[in-house]
Design brief:
Elements (H helix, E strand, L loop, with lengths): L8 E5 L2 E6 L6 H5 L4 E8 L7 E8 L9 E6 L10 E6 L8 H13 L11 E6 L2 E4 L3
Parallel strand pairs: 4-7
Antiparallel strand pairs: 1-2, 2-3, 3-4, 5-6, 7-8
């Protein structure tokens, strides 16, 4: 299995080319439920092998779960004191995933057993405090 090439970014880690992708649109779980974290898919750029899925500890910017958002009243402009509309605002600051983060996570994944050039099942890891652990399947 491979990730779609459209929208991917290239990165070189230890002399090896990789491509990585973050979905632009949040999944239902990311947007509606408490699993609103950013997921990153990575694979070797030139050789087909195992895909690395990184489940980060960073909130997805489109996540609207009650755990990371709050309803704020919109004050009417026409002088009426009654609130007629609400907007959703995140409670926490959204931290973007940078290429530097992805490079670090790729190195850590290879240290714990990801073989990017060898075919196999998806290798899934979770980020906890800027370190990764292999996710339970």
């Amino acid at each position: 299995m491979s990730i779609p090439k459209k929208g991917t970014r290239k990165i070189i880690v230890d002399g090896e080319p990789f491509i990585w992708l973050i979905r632009r649109q949040a999944t239902n779980c990311q947007a509606d439920y408490t699993d609103g974290h950013i997921h990153v898919a990575v694979e070797h750029a030139t050789e087909h092998g195992s895909v690395l899925v990184i489940i980060t500890d960073r909130l997805h910017p489109q996540g609207y779960s009650l755990t990371n958002s709050e309803f704020v009243p919109i004050q009417p402009q026409d002088g009426v004191t009654e609130v007629r509309a609400w907007r959703i605002e995140p409670r926490y600051e959204i931290t973007p995933v940078t290429p530097k983060d992805v490079a670090l996570w790729i190195k850590q994944a290879m240290q714990i057993g990801w073989l990017p050039k060898k075919s196999g099942i998806t290798f899934e890891v979770r980020v906890i405090d800027n370190s990764i652990i292999k996710a339970a399947m």
